[in-house]
Amino acid sequence: MRLPENKKTADDEIASRVVKILTWGAAIAELKDIQVKVENGYVTLEGTVDFYFQRNAAESLVRRLTGITGVDNRLRIRPMMDVLDIRHGIREALKRNAEIEAENIDVEVSGSHVTLRGKVQSRRERAVAERAAWSARGVTAVEDLLTIQDAQGHRLAL
Fold first, then answer.
1. CA 15 to chain centroid
2. pLDDT tens per residue, range 31-69
3. Hey, which of 103, 108, 116, 151 has its CA 20 to 30 A from 132?
4. Per the domain annotation, does 28 fall within a domain?
5. Does the predicted TM-score (pTM) go above 0.90?
6. CA distance 85 to 91
Protein backbone atom coordinates (compact mmCIF):
# COMPACT_ATOMS: atom_id res chain seq x y z
CA MET A 1 0.00 0.00 0.00
CA ARG A 2 1.32 3.44 -0.92
CA LEU A 3 0.67 6.50 1.13
CA PRO A 4 -0.85 9.54 -0.63
CA GLU A 5 2.34 11.56 -0.30
CA ASN A 6 4.19 8.91 -2.34
CA LYS A 7 1.84 9.08 -5.34
CA LYS A 8 4.25 11.14 -7.49
CA THR A 9 7.05 8.67 -6.83
CA ALA A 10 4.72 5.80 -7.65
CA ASP A 11 3.71 7.42 -10.94
CA ASP A 12 7.36 8.04 -11.83
CA GLU A 13 8.15 4.42 -11.01
CA ILE A 14 5.25 3.18 -13.14
CA ALA A 15 6.28 5.44 -16.05
CA SER A 16 9.82 4.05 -15.85
CA ARG A 17 8.51 0.47 -15.90
CA VAL A 18 6.23 1.27 -18.86
CA VAL A 19 9.16 2.65 -20.87
CA LYS A 20 11.26 -0.42 -20.00
CA ILE A 21 8.58 -2.93 -20.98
CA LEU A 22 7.92 -1.10 -24.27
CA THR A 23 11.65 -1.03 -24.99
CA TRP A 24 11.93 -4.76 -24.37
CA GLY A 25 8.83 -5.56 -26.43
CA ALA A 26 10.06 -6.73 -29.83
CA ALA A 27 6.83 -5.60 -31.50
CA ILE A 28 7.43 -1.94 -30.66
CA ALA A 29 10.08 -0.66 -33.06
CA GLU A 30 10.30 3.09 -32.45
CA LEU A 31 9.84 4.03 -28.80
CA LYS A 32 10.95 7.59 -29.61
CA ASP A 33 7.53 8.08 -31.22
CA ILE A 34 5.62 7.05 -28.08
CA GLN A 35 5.02 9.30 -25.10
CA VAL A 36 4.06 7.86 -21.72
CA LYS A 37 2.12 9.80 -19.09
CA VAL A 38 1.10 8.42 -15.71
CA GLU A 39 -1.29 10.09 -13.30
CA ASN A 40 -2.51 8.32 -10.18
CA GLY A 41 -1.47 5.02 -11.73
CA TYR A 42 -3.44 5.66 -14.95
CA VAL A 43 -1.19 5.24 -18.00
CA THR A 44 -1.75 7.24 -21.20
CA LEU A 45 0.11 6.19 -24.35
CA GLU A 46 0.34 8.82 -27.09
CA GLY A 47 2.22 8.99 -30.37
CA THR A 48 2.48 6.96 -33.54
CA VAL A 49 3.35 3.41 -34.60
CA ASP A 50 3.62 1.87 -38.07
CA PHE A 51 1.30 -1.10 -37.61
CA TYR A 52 -2.04 -1.84 -35.97
CA PHE A 53 -0.53 -4.83 -34.15
CA GLN A 54 2.06 -2.53 -32.53
CA ARG A 55 -0.71 -0.37 -31.10
CA ASN A 56 -2.35 -3.44 -29.57
CA ALA A 57 0.96 -4.93 -28.40
CA ALA A 58 1.92 -1.73 -26.57
CA GLU A 59 -1.35 -1.70 -24.64
CA SER A 60 -1.13 -5.42 -23.89
CA LEU A 61 2.40 -5.09 -22.53
CA VAL A 62 1.47 -2.14 -20.30
CA ARG A 63 -1.64 -3.88 -18.93
CA ARG A 64 0.61 -6.67 -17.58
CA LEU A 65 2.31 -4.29 -15.17
CA THR A 66 1.23 -4.24 -11.55
CA GLY A 67 0.23 -1.00 -9.90
CA ILE A 68 -1.56 0.57 -12.85
CA THR A 69 -5.19 1.61 -12.53
CA GLY A 70 -5.94 1.75 -16.26
CA VAL A 71 -4.60 2.39 -19.76
CA ASP A 72 -5.70 4.99 -22.30
CA ASN A 73 -4.25 3.90 -25.64
CA ARG A 74 -4.12 7.00 -27.85
CA LEU A 75 -1.50 5.58 -30.19
CA ARG A 76 -2.21 6.34 -33.84
CA ILE A 77 -1.05 4.37 -36.85
CA ARG A 78 1.30 6.39 -39.01
CA PRO A 79 -0.40 6.61 -42.42
CA MET A 80 1.55 5.38 -45.41
CA MET A 81 0.43 7.13 -48.54
CA ASP A 82 1.75 4.72 -51.15
CA VAL A 83 -1.51 2.98 -52.05
CA LEU A 84 0.18 0.52 -54.40
CA ASP A 85 2.59 -0.64 -51.68
CA ILE A 86 -0.25 -1.14 -49.21
CA ARG A 87 -2.36 -3.07 -51.74
CA HIS A 88 0.61 -5.18 -52.87
CA GLY A 89 1.56 -6.01 -49.27
CA ILE A 90 -1.96 -7.16 -48.46
CA ARG A 91 -2.29 -9.19 -51.67
CA GLU A 92 1.03 -10.93 -50.92
CA ALA A 93 -0.04 -11.68 -47.34
CA LEU A 94 -3.29 -13.19 -48.64
CA LYS A 95 -1.43 -15.34 -51.20
CA ARG A 96 1.01 -16.64 -48.56
CA ASN A 97 -1.82 -17.84 -46.36
CA ALA A 98 -2.87 -21.38 -47.28
CA GLU A 99 -6.29 -20.89 -45.65
CA ILE A 100 -7.39 -18.21 -48.11
CA GLU A 101 -8.31 -18.35 -51.77
CA ALA A 102 -6.81 -14.92 -52.48
CA GLU A 103 -8.18 -14.67 -56.01
CA ASN A 104 -11.70 -14.35 -54.57
CA ILE A 105 -10.78 -11.27 -52.53
CA ASP A 106 -10.55 -7.76 -53.93
CA VAL A 107 -8.42 -5.28 -51.97
CA GLU A 108 -9.30 -1.60 -52.41
CA VAL A 109 -7.06 1.04 -50.85
CA SER A 110 -7.92 4.69 -50.40
CA GLY A 111 -5.18 6.52 -48.54
CA SER A 112 -4.62 4.39 -45.46
CA HIS A 113 -8.11 2.83 -45.48
CA VAL A 114 -8.59 -0.69 -46.85
CA THR A 115 -11.82 -2.26 -48.06
CA LEU A 116 -12.05 -6.02 -48.55
CA ARG A 117 -14.68 -7.33 -50.98
CA GLY A 118 -15.33 -10.77 -52.34
CA LYS A 119 -16.11 -14.28 -51.15
CA VAL A 120 -14.60 -16.49 -48.47
CA GLN A 121 -15.69 -19.94 -47.33
CA SER A 122 -15.70 -19.53 -43.55
CA ARG A 123 -15.65 -17.06 -40.68
CA ARG A 124 -12.07 -18.12 -39.98
CA GLU A 125 -11.03 -17.34 -43.56
CA ARG A 126 -12.73 -13.96 -43.22
CA ALA A 127 -10.86 -13.21 -39.97
CA VAL A 128 -7.54 -14.25 -41.52
CA ALA A 129 -8.15 -11.94 -44.49
CA GLU A 130 -8.95 -9.04 -42.18
CA ARG A 131 -5.80 -9.75 -40.14
CA ALA A 132 -3.78 -9.74 -43.36
CA ALA A 133 -5.17 -6.29 -44.20
CA TRP A 134 -4.33 -4.95 -40.74
CA SER A 135 -0.78 -6.34 -41.07
CA ALA A 136 0.15 -3.89 -43.84
CA ARG A 137 2.26 -0.91 -42.84
CA GLY A 138 0.28 2.32 -42.53
CA VAL A 139 -3.24 0.83 -42.54
CA THR A 140 -5.45 2.86 -40.20
CA ALA A 141 -8.85 1.33 -41.02
CA VAL A 142 -10.17 -1.89 -42.53
CA GLU A 143 -13.71 -2.26 -43.84
CA ASP A 144 -14.59 -5.93 -44.18
CA LEU A 145 -17.32 -6.40 -46.83
CA LEU A 146 -16.47 -10.05 -47.48
CA THR A 147 -19.33 -12.52 -47.78
CA ILE A 148 -19.17 -16.11 -46.58
CA GLN A 149 -20.28 -18.65 -49.17
CA ASP A 150 -20.09 -22.42 -49.19
CA ALA A 151 -18.54 -24.41 -52.05
CA GLN A 152 -21.87 -24.37 -53.96
CA GLY A 153 -22.03 -20.56 -53.84
CA HIS A 154 -24.75 -20.32 -51.17
CA ARG A 155 -24.36 -17.30 -48.95
CA LEU A 156 -24.06 -18.26 -45.28
CA ALA A 157 -25.45 -16.24 -42.39
CA LEU A 158 -22.91 -13.95 -40.71
1. 22
2. 778 899 999 999 999 998 888 888 999 999 999 998 899
3. 151
4. yes
5. no
6. 10
